[in-house]
Amino acid sequence: MTSPAPPSLFAQTVAILRKDVRTELRTREVIVTLVFFSILVAVLSSVAFFVDGPGMRRVAAGALWTTIPFAGVLGLVRVFAREREWDGWTALVLSPADPVAIYLAKAAFVFLLLTAVELVLVPVVALLFGVSLGRFGGALAILLALGTLGFSIVGALFGALTVRTRARDLVLSVVLLPLLLPALLPAVMATRDLFEGARLADLAAWIRILGVYDLVSLICALWIFPTLADA
């Protein structure tokens, strides 16, 4: 009698991702914290950097891309702290699941988490800073998707790296944020230009930089993570 074929990489990734999503939907501890944090930062930014006229739209790009990475770091800390409880990370790594599937599931979960936060944050920023989502929404969605993907790819890798570290909050912030700078700068510049009236074609160079960053980061992460998981 032949043994059944092992689940595919895709099936393993979906199974782990489903577990994380189910856990979050049951507790809602991470998403609620991130949403309230993001709204608070957006409101404070609109008050602190208030200027009359179209200058508010320039500030909106900085407020948006300041809030997203800090909310992401906060989410990463809690997501991987949850894996540390009851030694869940060790159980996950020692399971028959492919390390690549574990990594892809964690990166996808962080991406979904931040996307859910952005669905609330972007309308709030648009309202506070006078940005027309009807005019800029499509191009902004592309920039947010690429920037969030880059954060998720790098964040999941370093979240796993620091999961057993006691001072993981500090280590994650110190290590992760400088590595995200090549993605955050193009994202801020492109969003600023967009809010000033640039067309999507005018942002092609920034979009290419973000795409290359995401691709290179993903290749490096897929190469490093299996070794990291075995450590």
Describe the overall structure.
This protein has one domain. Helix 1 (9-27) packs across helix 5 (99-129) and helix 3 (55-84) runs antiparallel to helix 5 (99-129). The chain has helices at residues 9-27, 29-48, 55-84, 88-94, 99-129, 133-161, 168-195, 204-230. The mean pLDDT is 86. The radius of gyration is 19 Å and the shape is globular. The protein has 231 residues and is an all-alpha fold. The protein contains 8 helices and no strands. The longest helix is centred in the middle third of the chain and has 31 residues, at 99-129.
Which residue ranges are poorly predicted, with pLDDT under 50 across at least 5 consecutive positions? none
Number of strands: 0
Rounded to the nearest angstrom, the radius of gyration is 19 Å
What is the beta-strand fraction?
under 5%
Structural class category: mainly alpha
Mean pLDDT: 86
The profile of the biggest β sheet is: none
The global form is globular
Helix content: over 70%
Compute the number of helices.
8
Count structural domains.
1
Order of helices and strands: HHHHHHHH
Distance between the termini: 36 Å
Fold topology:
Elements: H1 9-27, H2 29-48, H3 55-84, H4 88-94, H5 99-129, H6 133-161, H7 168-195, H8 204-230
Key phrases:
mainly alpha, 8 helices, single chain, 83% helix, 231 residues
Compact summary:
With 231 residues, the protein is mainly α.
